[in-house]
Structure formats: C-alpha cells, structure tokens
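Here is a typical protein record:
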Amino acid sequence: MRERLSEPPSDPERHPLHLDFPLWFELTSYAVLVLILAADLTLAYLRPHVPSAKESGLWVGFYVGLALLFALALWAVGGPEHAGQFIAGWLTEYSLSVDNLFVFVLIMARFAVPPKYQQEALMVGIIVALVFRGVFIVLGASLIANFSWIFYLFGAFLLYTAIRQATESEQKEAEQEESKDSALVAWLRHHLRIGGVYDGNRLHTVVADRRVFTPMVLVFISLGTTDLLFALDSIPAIFGITTSPFLVFSANVFALMGLRQLFFLLGHLLEKLEYLKYGIAVILAFIGVKLVLHAMHENEVPFINGGHGIHWAPEISTWTSLGVIIVTMAAATVASLARLRARERG
C-alpha cells in the first residue's frame, strides 16, 4: 500500500472528507473515543483528588495500551502503512503535547487552582482543545486536497518553529505565553462578572448576594486556548505524517487523552528535562524537511521547475519517520535524565 503522502494532494477525485476506512470502522472509532472521553470527564468530576504517581502511571499506561490496540485495529482494517502513519502521528503529537505541559503547570500556578480540582480543569481544557483542533484538521485537509503548494508553507513554518524551539529559552517562552494569557484574562474580567474565590469545581457561585463566575472559567478557557496555540505547530506536523483526516484526528485524541495523567506524573520533572525541547526541535525540523521534499516531488508552483514535479527529490517513508521520532525522543529523554542525575550527584 502506498504511503498517503505519495498521492497528489491536488487529485481532483480526492475530497477532503473522503473516507480512508470503512464507514462502520470510522463511526465505531469515533463513538468509542467519545465514550472514553465522557467517562474520563465524569471520573474527574465525581472524584476530585490529586492522583498518586502510581495511579497516574497506570492511567498513562492504559491510554498508551489503547493507542497500540487501535494501531493493531488499523493494521487489520487498513494495512501496515496506515497503522505506521497513526503510530508516527500519535508519537509526534504526544511529544509535542508533553511540551505543552510546562505551560499548563504555569497556568495552574497562576490561577492558584486547588490541586484536587486540577484534573477536571485539565480535562475540560483538553476537550475544548479537541473541538478547536477538529476544526483545524478539517480546514487543513481541505487546503491540502486543493492546494499542493501548501506543503511548502507548512514545511517552512515547521522549520521556523524548530529554530525558535531550539534557540528561545524556557523563561522567554513562558513570558510570551503569560503576556498572551494576561491580555485574554483582562478582556474576560472586563466582560464577565468573575469572583476571586473558588467554590469547589463550580463555574458559578454567590458572593455578597451576587451571582458570579468562579476563576475556574478562566482556567478552562486559558487551558483550551493555550492548547489551540500549540495546535498551530502540531497540526502541520502531523499532516507531514499522514493527510488522512481520520488518522490525524485519532492521533490527536489519543495523544491528548493521557495528557491529564501525564501532568501529575511528570509535572515536577518537566523543567528538569532540559534536552526535551531540543528533541522536539529536531522532530519539527525533520518533518518540515519531509514536507518540503514532498512539495517538491508533487510541485505545481509555476515558477519552480516550470510547474513540474522535481522527481529527484526523495520521499521519506512513514517507517523512516517513525524511527526518527522514536530515536530522537528517546535520546532527548535519556540525555535529560542523565544530566539530572549528574547534577544530583555533583
């Protein structure tokens, strides 16, 4: 089976909402994912608590196991190429989502969210982000189906993002996110009646006989919109792995589902994994190059090679991409942990 990126995105017979798998499989997958998200949100609401490292680790393992089972189902229904695309896309989104956690930690600290209500806040923020990402995915698929040159823009943007990721300090990135968040929060405080104290996990409360929103509203919106900003990087990145909207959305769902538990498992270690940002930068740069090479191969831009494809431009396979992603993240994690251990000993 040919790699999805080997098909010309401008093929007039391909509609952006074309079904890549049997309809029953896609509908069943969406239904199961919705049920899992609903159950997760219900648990977070009914059992507000701070999960232990063991509990968080078991949940992370559970969601990783679900993703691997889904990959096996894709293999059975669509073949190894689609399964490989999903795993590569899922790992890419997962690694980029880990980077998001650092900002999530800052948001929780800034709004002084009570620890036992942070699970629900994260879950609602993730669901809001999934809705926004779904819109982005449909728009991206439509652009890819009609304009092959969009891969040049996606590739250039990812290369720029990779350079920024590798060169900007964590403090500068945090300051930029804080300034964006402060502007949004200021606007919301001006237009909404928001109190200054939490009332459990409620969105409304009564203060001095006046019904007001609690700060939890700001937390939900901040988490969702912050993840939306991160989607500007991650959505083009996963389209460098596959152009199937179903696989793109599924990879995003599986990557974000375990993010809440990963927050509690790794939250205190995030700032110590100092080489993680460089690993993410390498992955973004690699996918950016892959997108540019694909755009050259399928070239339709008139002022580049007369509008003809540059056939000497190599195509990077899904399995090569998967290997690069795994090796890069493993190397960045091992190097960070080794650095952390050396500092503790010294």
Confidence is low (pLDDT under 50) at residues 1-17. The two ends are 53 Å apart (CA to CA). The chain has one domain: 20-345. Residues 192 and 213 are 8 Å apart (CA to CA).
